[in-house]
Amino acid sequence: MVDHGRISDLRHEIREYEEYISELEEACAFIDRTRVEMRDDNEEPLMRFDISSAGAWEGVLENDAENEKSEIICGISTSLSRASEFISDAQRIIETLHERISDCEREIESLESAQDSYY
Fold first, then answer.
1. Which residue range(s) make up the domain with 59?
2. I need a surface site. Which of 11, 69, 78, 108 has the fewest CB within 10 A?
3. Selection from 34, 68, 75, 77 nearest residue 49 by Cα
């Protein structure tokens, strides 16, 4: 006898997994856009900016400004790296969810096949 409740539960699981995947993909896309903007709008211009070329920035003030610049660039780089790590982790989770969807689909096929052979 076919377990219609189990098939219904599996289809519900698939829908939940698909929703999780959609949410993760949206989060990854947002983070990737933000990461690109952060790099293009902040890190690269800051790295190109030469503080020493301004005549007022000499000696200690120039060194302090260069140190601050280096700390900001380091912070941006760390944030970019963490964003990339998040995207990689999310992609691994998405792959796992796709595998679970495949498992559910195989079980549904098996249950439906059993139903066909029963009748």
1. 4-118
2. 78
3. 68
